[in-house]
Dihydroxyacetone kinase subunit DhaK (Jannaschia ovalis), 539 residues
Amino acid sequence: MGQFVNAKDAIVTDAIDGLVRSSGGRLRRLDGYPHIRVVTRGDWDRGKVALVSGGGSGHEPAHAGFVGPGMLTAAVCGDVFASPSVDAVLAGILAVTGAAGCLLIVKNYTGDRLNFGLAAERARAFGKRVEMVVVDDDIALPDLPSPRGVAGTLFVHKIAGAAAEAGADLDAVKAAAERVIAGTRSLGMSLDTCWVPGSPREERIPAGKAELGLGIHGEPGVEQVAYEGAAAAMSAVAAKLKTAMGEGPHVALLNNLGGTSELEMAILARDLAASEIGARIGHVIGPASLMTSLDMRGFSVSVYPASAEEIAALSTPVPMTAWPGCDALGEVGIDALPDGLAPIAPEPSSDPQTEAFLRRCCDLLISAEADLNALDAKSGDGDTGSTLAGAARAMTGALGRMPLADHTQLLRAIGQELSQTMGGSSGVLLAIFFTAAGDAAAGGHDMIGALRAGLARMQEIGGAEPGDRTMIDALAPALDALPDGMGAAATAAREGAAHTATLTRARAGRAAYVGEGQLRGNVDPGAEAVARLFEGLAE
């Protein structure tokens, strides 16, 4: 696997130029490439206190992504995970500092403290008023005398930035920053380390494990724990934070460390609200990528007991798209379904033989989940087995409220259940199949005739025919052979499914977008599911 970079030595300069060019003039940079890489506000007039931060690159959007009104005045960018030079920091200070002075916001790493600290001394020799604060919010290593600065730095950027934007003097801006630093606590967890460009990827975290408390440069954490899902991961982080949190309500910052999908981050937001510290969190920033570690598949949570004034500062809009805003953490709002969509539950009835048959069908589909997913991965998105198994599990749970003794209503009820619980086009098509079969049964058709009518309606709406490389290639011959018994239907379904492996062009479904090289020799997963179902029932 590669990375979208050009020359290794140009990674940071290329990224800065891309950021500045796409900012619409809101950002500028200093001359001095490649040693001096400083991003500044395009509208800055030195009339207020300047906020300068920075450090190693690889944490984007931090720090340059937060340069703008209400946050940073300038960001000084080092190489990936390396502190910028003293001259680069000094250039940034001198470029933006006026009579009101400058506050340096530095994360607690030796290189950053030394380079920013010496630059501050040299700037003072130039007659500039410069103060520095050091962020040390990481609680991963409780016995460490000098904790690391991580994503809680964003609280400082925003609250101190709001104060500076409002015209506060340097002492007040520094005091606001120090107050936030004193109360902020952060902790991260990841399933994998990050990939530093130009270096081999470190395989430190084994499969089935997550690392708690690793640093934003990939430094090892305090321990590796068994990974048992998102809720358990968030619970482990919340338990550590709980012991370090102050009194009163807190604002939480839910940070994507770079390689976690937005879908996963939304799940983690839900789990944060449900965790043992959820009741103490009144507002949340994110989930969003704020202080990343390249492509690390992890997250971090930062908490701070913000006052009403500080919540207002965190909530004040800024034009930088990297800042996601600060919102109240509330309950899930639920609106009633529109008229006509609320399900009308059929009258339940009992029929042990029918229930046993349906349970057998569901068990067969559930047992085939992994095999069908693997088969689908060769020609689709690898979820056919999970889609069918999920619907089967939902159907198993619904049997107690099904009209099992009335097969006409049962077919309709199955269609309704699938329309609610089964995703994708296959869910819609099978819902049509069973609903239409129920309607045909109500019109006097026997079960086989009703199922054939359901197939005809499914083909009419879905547009697929035998030979199009879909489940119909197995379902149609199976229903044709069903009058001769389940064994004959199973044989016909298997032959139809096997035939799909010879079809190198699909005319329906997602496989229609796949080249013939990926289709040749692989059975269509929908047809395979039908074949396995009939074979299992015939045993």
Notes: Confidence is low (pLDDT under 50) at residues 511-515.
